Amino acid sequence: MAYVDAPKDPEADSPFLEILNNPDEKKSLLLFKTPLSFAVLNKYPYNAGHSLVLPRREVQNLEQLTEEEHADFFRAVTRMAAILREALTPDGINVGINLGAAAGAGIPKHLHCHLVPRWTGDTNFMPVVGGARVLPVALEYLWENLKKFI
Q1: Is 110 a residue of the active site?
Q2: For 101, which DSSP code?
Q3: Catalytic, out of 50, 70, 110, 112
Q4: Chain segment 94-116, per-residue pLDDT in tens
Q5: What strands, in cross-sheet order, belong to the sheet with 113-118?
Q6: Which residues contact 114 (CB under 8 A, 6 or more apart)?
Q7: pTM given for the model
Q8: CATH number (domain holding residue 112)
């Protein structure tokens, strides 16, 4: 609810940039950095292990990435998917990028790729009836578990 209720300012600085400047990786949920990208746990996850991969440079669209950034970004997406499979053994992983606010990007000014681990039967009546998601694990515990695989 903190995210849902918070005022949205499309001109505000990207909260993602603050992650790279925070020396406390656990507090910022930073999982790993590459030369041109980084991965974090989503602070407002759809499912346990919901992660984001972002280019370090703030861009809105894929075509704004340099060739080097593009390669590094998708290598980081591949690495994060492998980490999630090894650490959490999901039955599948949703991988997606929302380009623009109309497509569902909550922070459209900073390109990011969502990786959402999925398990057979992980959707129940809660999202439909209650409009709520039930996560079986705390973010801090999950961060510590995933860091073991990085």
Answers
A1: no
A2: G
A3: 112
A4: 999 999 989 888 888 999 999 99
A5: 30-33, 37-41, 51-55, 113-118, 92-97
A6: 42, 46, 50, 51, 52, 94, 95, 96, 97, 98
A7: 0.80
A8: 3.30.428.10
